[in-house]
């Protein structure tokens, strides 16, 4: 379905971003991987995806906190792939603390990586997508773009911003063959969430499995995690012709979290 198309997925060396990159590659898209991690493991991922799905895969460690590096990443992607049809803004970080104890530096980092990076990448992508007369932009927001939780002021503010940005870009690109949507996962078991499970386990003096169940039961009625592969499938759908009239949407995958 996506053969001869190219996708840039930020923050795709692990977690949800890797699930999305694999799902797009499985449909034939060439992939630009981005993120941090052990260089040998990342090279193995790059070669593995290319071999498994018969697509071109390149990697860049551009820092999504740095606008100049985001612009350079987009230029590199177009130069190496010839075109970028799909932009998935996925890179994100978390920090939890009450607002009055929230470190200024963590607030700034969350705003830069979780929100401003989406703007800078979209700004770089739009001239290219407009010239092609086609493009798909998917921003990985969160249920925390729709509702709040305690101790996550920066994350909640940034993710609400991502949904607002997605709507604004959807309006500006309407009728130009470009769509822009937000995806709002609930709990997904990735390193980002594992840290919160570990903190809960130590706070409550319980084991890791009990902490997982406690975390889910507090918010996610299904009692199950969503998976990176399920999120990848939703992104593939948003990149399909069938989704051509879906733009400006905030699509949840949260086991009923925001239905409450
Ligand atoms: P993760 O920590 O498992 O992976 C994050 C990825 O982003 C990694 O590849 C990491 O190297 C990369 N990254 C981090 N900082 C970066 C930077 N400055 N520049 C470039 N890359 C960077 O996280 P995840 O759980 O897979 O989260 C992915 C996205 O999904 C985030 O935007 C997160 O807010 C969102 N999300 C996650 C959950 C969840 O339950 N895991 C729920 C809702 C939304």
TrEMBL record:
One of the GO BP terms on file: monocarboxylic acid metabolic process
Family annotation (SUPFAM superfamilies): NAD(P)-binding Rossmann-fold domains (SSF51735)
InterPro entries: 3-OHbutyrate_DH, NAD(P)-bd_dom_sf, Sc_DH/Rdtase_CS, SDR, SDR_fam
Pfam families hit by this protein: adh_short_C2 (PF13561)
MF GO annotations: 3-hydroxybutyrate dehydrogenase activity
Family recorded in the similarity comment: Belongs to the short-chain dehydrogenases/reductases (SDR) family.
Name listed for the protein in its UniProt record: 3-hydroxybutyrate dehydrogenase
Taxonomic source organism: Massilia glaciei
